[in-house]
Design brief:
Blueprint (H helix, E strand, L loop, with lengths): L2 H13 L2 E2 H10 L5 H4 L12 H4 L1 H17 L6 E6 L5 H9 L6 H4 E6 L3 H10 L6 E2 L11 E6 L8 E6 L2 E10 L2 E6 L20 E4 L3 H15 L1 E10 L8 E4 L2 E3 L9 E3 L2 E2 H5 L5 E5 H7 L2 H9 L4 H15 L8 E7 L11
Parallel strand pairs: 2-3, 2-5, 3-4, 5-10, 10-14
Antiparallel strand pairs: 1-7, 6-7, 6-9, 7-8, 10-16, 11-12, 11-13, 15-16
Helix pairs in contact: 5-6, 12-13
The structure holds S-adenosyl-L-homocysteine.
């Protein structure tokens, strides 16, 4: 049993069952035993691989999208270039390298990062040294100026609540104990909050997830876009409306039981993009495959392939396929763009 499992079991003995959101928060960010606080989770040695770690093309094309939108909005200076959950800093490094040739872009940007893990902040400081990043602990501290923001696989790590339709009402799913092991159950009483009215007609037994922690992020982003313009690109796996139990654990690149080893596996849930876009116009929404294709990934891939042979060429081709193909990340991952009310839509969306 993991150290964190012992702590949580003791707490449930004392305080009763906990919400899925509290469980997720402890597993990911517990100061001593949390998944992100204790290990660098990415890459071949880690538990999962993210798009920027698969190929430099991902960050390069996102960089071009951001820079084109910045130009289309009159090249505002100064502006904030921000990233939520930058991981190893790979995506931002590729964005910055790809935009070096855009006149005025680097001179005008203030690089702002939001990262909960001290270990990853140290990695980011190393990867992005030279660009003077500034870390904010609270999203409200985003500077009051034009905002160009990216978040890749950030929102899927925010804790979710789960509710189950039971006798015509929503009951929260909870984690309690069965024979001294962590086990799912549901609250005996219906919840006061829970899923919105768009879910009122769902049949008995349906599970719906909500992510209240995403709301302050979206409120601040929308506030900056409204006041100063800009673009927020949110890439994640999920769909337009939350449906079903999507809590999943990944360990060593394989699915695992989310309750089996708290703190040792990555825990995520599908992102509900409808909830992220709520209250905002204009926005665009598409699949990662369509987005990268419209931004020109095929031409970029062909260009990079010219300098490669053997295993490196094979890896490059596989990475291109993995990012865009429908059977891989191409359609499971979605891209949501929120942009300034007077701005044209960013490139990459039909
Ligand atoms: N964007 C990176 C990493 C994705 S993993 C990539 O694409 O490779 C999720 C990232 O979000 C990690 O850097 C993790 O430490 C960070 N993170 C998770 N929950 C967070 C929270 N509540 N606040 C700030 N950062 C968080």
């Amino acid at each position: 049993m993991t150290a964190l499992a012992e702590i949580l079991i003791r707490r449930i003995h004392e305080d009763g069952p906990m919400t899925v959101a509290s469980y997720m928060a402890e597993c990911l960010l517990h100061p001593e035993h949390g998944y992100y606080t204790t290990r660098p989770p990415f890459g071949a040695q880690g538990d999962f691989v993210t798009a920027p770690e698969i190929s430099q093309m991902f960050g390069e094309l996102i960089g071009l999208c951001l820079a084109q939108s910045w130009l289309d909005q009159g090249a505002p200076a100064p502006f904030t270039l921000a990233e939520l959950g930058p991981g190893r800093g790979t995506l931002m490094a590729d964005v910055l390298r790809a935009t070096r040739g855009v006149p005025g872009f680097h001179a005008a940007l203030h690089l702002v990062l939001h990262e909960a893990s001290p270990a990853l902040r140290a990695v980011q400081a190393e990867t992005l040294r030279g660009y003077h990043p500034h870390w904010i602990a609270d999203i409200g501290a985003l500077p009051d100026q034009p905002l160009f923001l990216i978040a890749n696989e950030f929102f899927d790590a925010l804790p979710i609540h789960q509710y189950q339709r039971t006798h015509g009402q929503w009951h929260e799913r909870l984690i309690g104990l069965q024979a001294d092991h962590l086990a799912f159950g549901i609250a005996p009483d219906p919840t006061n909050g829970g899923p919105g009215p768009q879910f009122a007609a769902e049949p008995e037994g349906t599970v719906v997830e909500t992510c209240p922690q995403a709301r302050p992020y979206m409120a601040t982003i929308q506030h900056r876009l409204h006041a100063h313009g800009g673009l927020a690109l949110i890439v994640d796996y999920g769909g337009w409306r939350s449906k079903g139990d999507t809590l999943q654990a990944l360990k060593s690149h394989a699915f695992a039981d989310p309750l089996a080893e708290p703190g040792r596996a990555d825990l995520t849930a599908h992102v509900d993009f409808e909830a992220l876009a709520a209250g905002w116009a204009p926005y665009r929404y598409t699949t990662q495959g369509a987005f990268l294709t419209l931004l020109g990934i095929d031409a970029r891939a062909a260009r990079l392939a010219q300098g490669l042979t053997g295993a490196a060429l094979e890896n490059h081709r596989a990475a291109h396929h993995r990012l865009t193909n429908d059977a891989e990340m191409g359609s499971l991952f979605k891209v949501l763009a929120l942009y300034g009310p007077s701005a044209p839509p960013p490139p990459g969306f039909a």
